[in-house]
Amino acid sequence: MVHARQESGKTAGAERLGRLLRAGNAGSTVRPLPRGIPSRTPGFLEDLLMRVACLFQDHMVLQREMDVPVWGWAEPGARIEAELKGADAKAGATADAGGQWLLRLPPLEAGGPYELVVRGEGQEVAFRDVLVGEVWVCSGQSNMEFTLIAARDGEAEVAAAQHPSLRMVTVERAQSGAPKTDFKGSWSVCSPATAGRFSAVGYFFARDLVRRLGVPVGMISASWGGTPAEAWVSREGLLTEPVLHDHVRRLDEEGRPDAEAKYAAALAAWQRSLPQDPGNQGWPRGWAGLDADMSAWKTMRLPTHWQAAGYDFSGVFWFRREIQVPAEWAGRDLELSIGACDKGDVTYFNNERVGSLTPEQTPDSWRIERRYTAPGRLVKAGRNVVAVRVCSNVFAGGMTGPAGVMWAAPPGTPESQRIRLEGDWRFRVEHNFGRVTQAMPRRLGAVPATLFNAMIAPLLPAAIRGAIWYQGESNAERPAEYRVLFPTLIRDWRRVWGQGDFPFYFVQLANFGCVQDWPALRAAQRCALDLPNTGMAVTIDIGEARDIHPKNKQDVGARLARVALARTYGVAGVEWSGPEVVWARSEGAAARVQFAHAAGGLRPADERLTGFELAGPGREFHEAEARRVGGGQLLLTAPGVTEARWVRYAWKCDPVCNLRNADGLPASPFEIPLPFGAWGAAKAQ
Question: What's the pTM value of the predicted model, to 2 decimals?
Answer without folding.
Answer: 0.79
